Amino acid sequence: MFQICEELNANKSSWKQFWDEKSVTPFAVNGNKVIAYDNERSIAEKVKFAIKNKLGGIMVWSVDTDDFHGDCYEKDDNAIAASYPLMRAINKAVFVSQREQANEVITQEEKDTANKKESGSSSSGTALGSLGLCLALFFFGL
């Protein structure tokens, strides 16, 4: 991402940036040159997909291309959040996706409990259980 960001920022007028809904990925075009890459949004979508579909994990292939120093962020951005944007996007997306999934489970349990009360049956205990996802990635302390 860092090298791509440098290229896109250095030649802003030459590159036109787009979003591909099918692959959920940004890409840029400059004449006959095309660059497809991941950004925070595409990474978050991929993490969400993995968790929603209960995949066995996700992997980061090239951590060394993340923006370690936050050089691609505007000066107005939070300096702490500017470094490692892709790793931070993974961390945030895992947290948000798991919370959303837990909320869906709780909502379904509430519906099930209401249905059982209406039908006269009872059940004790709740079972949030495991989200069934083993993530193969590094979490950086935020």
UniProtKB/TrEMBL annotation:
Domain GH18: 1-97
Region listing for Disordered, in residue ranges: 105-126
PROSITE patterns: GH18_2
Residues of the signal peptide: none
Residue stretches of biased makeup (Basic and acidic residues): 108-119
Pfam name, any one: Glyco_hydro_18
InterPro entries to which the protein is assigned, alphabetical: Chitinase_insertion_sf, GH, Glyco_hydro18_cat, Glycosyl_Hydrlase_18
Name of the protein: GH18 domain-containing protein
Organism: Timema podura
